[in-house]
Amino acid sequence: MKTSIVIAGLACVALAGAQEGFVEAKPIHVEPLGEIDVIPGAVFADTVMLRLYLDAEGNVTSVEVWSSSGDQAVDAAALEAGEKCRFLPATQDGEPVESYFQIYYRLSAYRTREYLSAEEKAGTAEEAPPPKEDDGRD
Q1: Residue 35: count of CB within 10 angstroms of its CB
Q2: Cα-atom radius of gyration of the chain, to the nearest Å?
Q3: 3-state secondary structure the chain
Q4: pLDDT digits (tens, 9 = 90+) for 49-90
Q5: What is the largest CA-CA distance in the chain?
Q6: What structural domains does the chain harbor?
Q7: Which of 96, 103, 111, 120 has its CB 3.0 to 4.6 Å from that of 116, i.e. a possible disulfide?
Q8: How far apart are CA 24 and CA 92, in angstroms?
Q9: Is residue 26 pLDDT above 50, yes or no?
């Protein structure tokens, strides 16, 4: 049985070069993850960190999971999203250069109606007050 989690937000961290005159790549589009199916009750980290390698034009040339969430579906979705990110290139003394960029996706799980078990749904229905009968008075 699976349920959905929603990726609530992310933070980008650029790793600046130690050299003088280095200007880090700037993100112009960071692809969101949206909803991902995971196994209910599965234990995994609330963050997945990617390292994106960029060419001198700012294109993503490869992506790797730098710190796993512990869930294959979440990591795979993050890798796919990382490939769709776009950047202005890093520069060294005003010239575009290859670089890398790290992205942290922070995960937030929200229970959905599909997630509720049959027992929970039945319990919710039993707790609802009965409908009022129409006695003809308005």
Answers
A1: 13
A2: 23
A3: CCEEEEEEEEEEEECCCCCCCEECCEEEECCCCCEEEECCCCCCCCEEEEEEEECCCCCEEEEEEEECCCCHHHHHHHHHHHHCCEEECEEECCEEECEEEEEEEEEECCCCCCCCCHHHHHHHHHHCCCCCCCCCCC
A4: 999 999 999 999 999 999 998 888 888 988 999 999 999 999
A5: 84
A6: 3-109 (3.30.2420)
A7: 120
A8: 9
A9: yes
